Amino acid sequence: MSDLDQRIAEMVAVARSVVTYHGDPEKRAAMDALYGRFVRPGGLAFDIGSHVGDRVASFRRLGARVVALEPQPGPAGVIARLFEGDAGVALRQAACGASAGEITLKVNTANPTVTTASAAFVASAAGAGGWEGQVWDREITVPCLTLDGLIADHGVPDFVKIDVEGFEADVLAGLSRPIPALSFEFTTIQRDVAFACLDRLAALGPYRFDVALGESQQMTFGSAIDRQAMAAHIADLPHEANSGDVYAVLVKG
Fold first, then answer.
1. Taking every annotated instance into account, which residue ranges of this chain make up the domain Methyltransferase FkbM (predicted)?
2. Which CATH number goes with the domain that contains 44?
3. Each residue of 63-106: pLDDT tens digit?
4. Which of 192, 187, 174, 234 is nearest to 210 (CA)?
């Protein structure tokens, strides 16, 4: 693929993502209802792995300030245009990990939503049902920040959304203090990453959990469960469940 063909393919994929993630009013309403449990007017949310900013938009509709991290130039450009002039959105074109510096992303040109910093994620997807045809066809080097660094720069968030395609445990390794609430994505091709995230959160503080599968925006349990129960639930999910987001809330007092 020539450089021009690659740029065109990236533009088409990003445009498709904008329509998919911003175009459905029912999905927006469901998203706002879900995140409204964690995000309040005047609060602060971090969106780690913002892609084309649908969660950023939800957090803003809910009245929160947002720090958005998106390392890919195309999606980051979309966020910059969508929220141009909005002082409530701070866009950082960077990845997030265990330590600050630089990191290499494996880019999926045709489907940038699954671009990743995790070689293990790419290896797990190879040959897995539901992941057929996914190709990570180039690499880019990008800045890497940490959650601790973002907190130092912007303050303690009320909520952090982490969606970084198999790199979630590395992101949490860069957090040294409990925060009120967060979510992390998991996949059934890498359940070990979800277990590592649960272990990290248990080490940080007394968290309780719920989960929403896919893009349902619907909690599975409706009441918080402990780390062991959540790990057992993820272990028992069929492969076809594919992915979801675990929501963690810090137990007060």
1. 47-181
2. 3.40.50.150
3. 999 999 999 999 999 999 999 999 999 999 999 999 999 999 99
4. 234
